[in-house]
Amino acid sequence: MKLPHVLLSYVLLITLLLALPAPASLAGDDAGTPATLEGVAASLDRLHSTLDGFRHRLDALEKKVDDGLWFDRLGDVAVIDKVRIYGPPRWKEKSDTAIGAGNPLKFWCYAFFPRDLDTSRKAPLLVFPHGGVHSDFSTYYTHIVRELLAQGYVVVAPEYRGSTGYGRTVYENIDYGGLEVEDNHAARQYMLDNYDFIDGDRVGMIGWSHGGLISLMNIFEHPDAYECAYAGVPVSDLIARMGYLDEDYRALYYADFHIGEQVTDNIEEYKRRSPAWNAHKLQTPLLVHTSTNDEDVNSLEVENLIKALKAEGKEFEYEIYEDFPGGHSFDRLDSRGARQVRVKVYRFLARYLEPPRPITDLEQLDRAGYVVPGND
Questions:
Q1: N or C: more exposed end of the chain, with fewer CB within 10 A?
Q2: pTM, 2 dp
């Protein structure tokens, strides 16, 4: 009998909990020896390591469950594959002489193809990086992917270095605004190398938040490879960002396995990774959206990007929405207003990528992405 996904997840969770080792005693050894300060610290370190490992195992479990949900929720309109490819070597090696040091870094990608795709004709491609400092491409994006497939786009979604769901090593390979950008570009190249029906002259990028940053940095570094890009609520200025977010957030960046320095110790390193400080590189048609009530990427960051692009004399499109319901997720929600904004995004992309069935109004979007009575 096939277990439902939710029941299966609980069974696996209980199995993982039972497999966890018991934490070392914090009060001394079994003979009743009083704990020393050093002993307590060592026990706490072991406990922290155990809990951290457990977190990664839970992320991997959640990823396996969500992978199944992709087929459940998109199987009627998509052919779905998950492929393992590679990008550049790690930007920081623990040892330059260790076995495997300098090898290309391997990672997974989702590939979504319209089920009715006519492979005798060339199809446009969208590279779709997920958001989150550490996150993954999940069924959170179901409706958006359905909308893209309905227009005739092929979509590739890289689980680039630093993604969750693949264990501690992948998590600690993070290179925010660095070589993760090249992982996404490698996904583009993989699709062109392996599917001859994809049109190399009709490739774009679409991403929100961290994914918006990756989209921006890709068109900055590879302007001839993309016809256009959409950056929704993009992380734009890491220097400003470190100033208004809390210590727990900043610690994700100055962790030893990541940048390893705070912004006050190495401003140039944070500038290198920030779109607002690379605005002079823009050559590609670009649309940027933000909202003044964004509770994650404060609109001041995106406004810094917009001002920088204007100062460089760049041509691009943008819109700053005023207190749009949903804040950071304002145009990714399923509300009517969010869907209307996505219609604008799809109109922009269609001008440059010419999908066979462009979405130009809300009715078309709803029929493409949602369950509508009578829509067989």
A1: N
A2: 0.87
